[in-house]
Each structure stands twice: as C-alpha cells, then as structure tokens.
Structure of Histidinol dehydrogenase:
Amino acid sequence: MRILNSKQQVENYIEMAQIRKWENEEEIEQKVRRIISDVKDKKDEALLYYTRLFDCEGICLDELQVSQEEIERAYFECEREDKDFIDALNTAYKNIYEYHMRQKEESWFYIKNGSLLGQIIKPLEKVGIYVPGGKGAYPSTVLMNSVPAKVAGVEKIIMVSPPDKNKSISKYTLAAAKICGVDKIYRVGGAQAVAALAFGTQIIPKVDKIVGPGNIYVATAKKLLFGYVDIDSVAGPSEVMVIADESANPKYIAADLLSQAEHDPMARCILVTTSLQVAQEVSENVEKMLAIFENSVALEAIEKNGVIIVVDDLFEAAEIANIIAPEHLEICCNDTEEVLLKIKNAGAIFIGEYSPEPIGDYIAGPNHVLPTSGTASFFSPLGVYDFVKRMSLIKYSKEQFFSDAQHAINIAQKEGFLFHANSLKVRLEDV
C-alpha cells in the first residue's frame, strides 16, 4: 500500500479523494434512461426483454415471480444442509430488530390556547428492496433492508433480485427473505427492476420507496427516478477508514482494510495513523494476506485506492476523517474517546480491536446500508425513520384564530397572495 507521510502528499490525496465521479457516468446514464423509458411504456414486455438480455435468456414472464413454495423449499433446504447458517440468520434478525426498535417514532400532540397541534407518524404502504444477485448471495442485504421496514409497520415489502443463468435466486437469499417476512419476490434486476418498482407493471406493483445497494446501473436508475418514487440514497463504491496509533494491531487493521477491498475494485481503503511503524507493518500484512487469498478484486482495490496516511497527531487524523466522511470508520487507539468526540462525519463508527467492520455488516444490529462517497456529511444510515412519513396536524380554536389571523394576513399581503389573506379575512368579518 502507498504510504503518504509528507504534508504535500496528504493534501494532494485529500483533494483527489473529494472528487466523486463514476467512470463513464454520462454514457451509463444514457443507457439507463433508455431502459427506464422502455419499462415505463412497455411494462412487462420490456422487463422480460431486459431480463433475458442481461441475466437469463430462457426465462418466461410467468417465471419472474418467485413462488411461495420455492421460498419455503429454499429455507428448509438451508436448514437441512446447514442449520448453523439458519441459526446465524435468526441471531442477526434478532439483533437487527432489537436495535431498530429503538428508532421508532411516535405521533405527538400538544394543546395551545385551546388549539390542537401535532405530528402524525404513518408507515409507508409499499416498499421495494433491491438485493444484488446473479452469481452472488446477499442474505445480509435482505435483513438490513427488510427489518427496519417491518419495525416501521410497512404493509408490503416487494423484493427484486437478478436471477442467475439457470433462473435461480440464491437459496440463502430466499431463506433470509422468509425469515424477514418479505411479501413478494421477483427475479429481475438492474435498472429495469428499479423502473418496474417506480412505475409498476402488470406483475410488479408500484412502490412508495426503493432501498438497497446495486451496481452503477441500479444507482443511476434510482437517482433518475427519485421524485417518481422515494429512494434511500445513491450508493457509490464501499469504503473504510481506520484511525490508529502505535497501540493498534497491524494484522487486524490489514484484515479489516482487505475486508472492504473485496467488495469492489473501486473500494476505498484508508489507514490514518500516527505511527510510521504501524504504517509499514500494516502494508506488509496486506501484501501477505493478498498472497494467501489471491483475490483479484481486493488486489485491484488496494492498488487503485489503498493508501496509508501518516499524521502528526490524532487531531489531524480526525480532521481527515471529517473531510472524507467515510462510510465505515474504525478507531483503534488508546484514547478512543478523544478521537470519537472530534468525529463529525462517518456512516458507522467501530471502536476497539474487537469491533471490526464485518461484525457490523452481519450481526451487531446497526444497519449496514450506509452513506458512501462522502455523503456521510449529510446522510444517515438506513433506519426505521426511512420507512415512515410525517403529517402535521392543525386544529385551531376560534379564540386562537382571532388572535393570530391578522398576523397571517399581514404576511400574506406582503407576499402578494391576496386570496390567502381573503381566506382569513372572511372569517374575521363574520364576527
């Protein structure tokens, strides 16, 4: 890994790190716009065409929906072959549910001079969950996206996931969907799946919100369709930053950096440390582990975006973290509280050597759907609050109306809205 220890090197890196742009972004957007337009106009016909083109040539329209029998079969097959996996899913579900229950909001009201004012919290009716598929299996994505929706009280959870060439969705993904109580599952992926959820087709219902990670085509479709439907965020490549002092374990840090590197060749893996010795030992451990596992994706990510920054003190390390606003931030040093108090921007924070990022990915409870590409400076992790809407309530008393109406009239007149003012005046004139 590159080690940067001069002021100029660090400044250049931070400036570069703030440029957040996908490769071939304009070209991809044109392709996605065409797919969205086709699905909007031709609905299931376009959905089937693109599913055959990108995922599975021989699939038929009536095979796009996964049957309840197939979901049950996948679950019991997993249970028979690997009960430990089902136990792990159930433990993760319990921890995630327990954590997100603490995020629930309640409606509230208060009375002022005989008037009733308040806020009503209602869950969204239908939510779409995108789960990557094809060659991979992502049961943890099902858990992290479904559980907060369930806690919020969402009525219908619709899941989409691309099939492999044999028309299959991973049994591990389906088992997780059964545990989470997902209502309907469809074998569709990519921008076409996002468009189907946004507009609705003959077989896929229109939803109120789409959540879940995906590739550049999925992310672009979500961005373009925001407004027709709500979305969680436009996710970029995964990233991890570790802040460490001389007390940190270089082997652990190297393992944690590589755990993010295997996500994507564009994944960003950063160590910021006050110790040159730790920097060198981490770099050596990364090389050793890459040689053992021979993972080409992780190797490319480390070569492209792996960097070690040596700083004078932990205050400088925290400043760099706040500028980059990493998706995952690990703090591995003696005085974690000192560093934590200085952190303003991060998706999820992991403290101490026994809190590696993967424990948060799978089992701890907090959501692993996190803001990326610096958006942690203004976005939050996915949570129950993403699956509810708020309605304000106003029930004015006659006395309060007569007390406040003239003030409202004065403001309306200054804005030039005479009918607004008139709506208030006709009530005053009746007295």
